[in-house]
């Protein structure tokens, strides 16, 4: 197996089994490990196996061809999908699965292991995704939380499955211990097909431009009235990616001085009746939202900075049917 050491900035230094060719019976297998995914090419010159019956983990090929030169199956899968398993050792993070064929196949069953090994960073810790529990993140003397909720917000949701077009209740809050009173804002939210964002992740913007609920321009997604400044509620209209994959929500939570809102720290949504952006917490100051269709910068704050009291939270996977 040909192995290369690849150096990538701000990511893992990893060992990749790249373009390594193996033979299983009369088949040649090429494995190409990427940053967050793996591509596998199966070529059988004698066409001993129907390529459409092959599986990478539990996923069928993304491309199949049969001609006079033999048969070919191509697989592409992001890690942690298609029954790809993650194994963490002292020094490595390994994503592994196998190519198999059904036992009903007349030819000899296929079993070929596929693995991508990456060097583990010293401070690496597994991400925890449990959308049925509050996600708690500590930052100084603040604790941020975000979760799916029941329709009436009386408690945490009991399901992660939603009908297409239905409303998904979400609550985020900050628990303040000895800190001055703060208002919680959603600075940014993206929907993605992956639990960890990467350059090749499929994403759909929900909240951008420092607090603008851009999804409200074309859907029924809305912020809900606050019960307290330290909590923000969002009713998000369920949608599907064209690929039909599960949905992960990535949000940046920011706690801020409530008397110091500006165009860079706000909660805005689009009112389609009046065709204008509205500041949820004080409609009389909706001029702060006028930048939502351009670029919101905000002025520099003294004493409190977004970096000091902001966290990223992920909930999912959500199943949309």
From TrEMBL:
Cellular component annotations (GO), alphabetically ordered: extracellular matrix
InterPro entries: ZP-C (IPR055355), ZP-C_dom (IPR042235), ZP_dom (IPR001507)
GO molecular function, one term: acrosin binding
Chain ranges passing through the membrane: none
GO biological process assignments: binding of sperm to zona pellucida; egg coat formation; positive regulation of acrosome reaction
Gene3D superfamilies in alphabetical order: Zona pellucida, ZP-C domain, Zona pellucida, ZP-N domain
Keywords: Disulfide bond, Signal
Protein species of origin: Onychostoma macrolepis
Signal peptide start-end: 1-27
Protein origin, superkingdom: Eukaryota
Protein name, UniProt field: ZP domain-containing protein
Domain ZP: 32-275
């Amino acid at each position: 197996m040909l192995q290369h050491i690849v150096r990538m900035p701000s990511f893992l230094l990893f060992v990749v089994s790249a373009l390594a060719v193996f033979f299983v019976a009369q088949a040649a297998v090429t494995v190409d490990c990427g940053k967050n995914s793996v591509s596998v090419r199966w070529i059988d010159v004698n066409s001993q196996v129907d390529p459409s019956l092959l599986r990478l983990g539990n996923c069928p090929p993304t491309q199949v061809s049969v001609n006079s030169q033999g048969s070919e199956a191509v697989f592409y899968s992001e890690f942690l999908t298609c029954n790809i398993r993650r194994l963490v050792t002292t020094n490595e993070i390994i994503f592994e699965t196998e190519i198999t064929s059904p036992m009903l196949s007349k030819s000899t069953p296929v079993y070929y292991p596929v693995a991508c090994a990456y060097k583990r960073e010293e401070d690496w810790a597994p991400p925890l995704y449990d959308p049925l529990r509050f996600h708690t993140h500590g930052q100084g003397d603040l604790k941020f939380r975000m979760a799916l909720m029941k329709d009436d917000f009386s408690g945490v949701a009991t399901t992660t499955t939603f009908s297409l077009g239905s409303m998904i209740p979400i609550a985020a809050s900050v628990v303040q211990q000895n800190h001055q009173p703060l208002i919680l804002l959603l600075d940014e939210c993206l929907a993605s097909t992956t639990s960890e964002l990467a350059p090749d992740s499929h994403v759909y913007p929900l909240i951008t431009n420092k607090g603008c609920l851009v999804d409200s321009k074309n859907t029924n997604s809305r912020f809900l009235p606050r019960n307290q400044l330290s909590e923000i509620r969002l009713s998000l209209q369920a949608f599907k990616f064209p690929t039909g994959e599960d949905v992960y929500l990535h949000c940046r939570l920011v706690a801020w001085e409530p008397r110091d809102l500006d165009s860079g720290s706000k909660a805005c949504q689009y009112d389609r009746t009046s065709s204008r952006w509205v500041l949820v917490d004080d409609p009389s100051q909706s001029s702060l939202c006028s930048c939502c269709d351009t670029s919101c910068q905000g002025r520099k704050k003294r004493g409190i900075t977004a970096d000091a009291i902001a966290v990223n939270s992920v909930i999912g996977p959500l199943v949309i049917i």
